[in-house]
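pasting for the record
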Amino acid sequence: ARSGKLARLTEMMDELLDAGDRALIFSQFTEMGGYLQNYLQDRFGRPVLFLHGGVPARQRQVMVERFQDEADGPPVFVLSLKAGGTGLNLTRANHVFHFDRWWNPAVEDQATDRAFRIGQKQNVQVHKFVCVGTLEEQIDAMIEEKKALAASIVGSGENWLTELSTNDLRDLVQLRRQMMA
């Protein structure tokens, strides 16, 4: 594995595949999704599905049916966050991975909800990968602060939560001395 995230994902996939579990892996980047599909197929010698915006509707349905219905079907389903984050019922999964974070927590929550649907019979574990000392860590901290603030003041799910101010964006991308060390 070329990155800490990929190394950790590989370890976790080793464990969950050995246990007979199934996983959804979300990435906001189509290129990363394709890379993950190829890497995981090569590493584990098992088919990995990849749904992205370029997949025709009929093929999407076939992929969902394979993942949901086949006892020996593909145990891993990689999805682009935008194309696979809504409107799908993927209750066969009992692990959800967010390989990279998105600015809008509602988008991530919608994606996670693909596994949390009527018909889910298992506990679902959600894993969010964040590298320390990176922009991702700042995005994660900002998301968690906004969620906590929203929950304490007005409850979750308010529209203002998903819109970043200019100051929030500036704070997010500002280089900090302690991160340079």
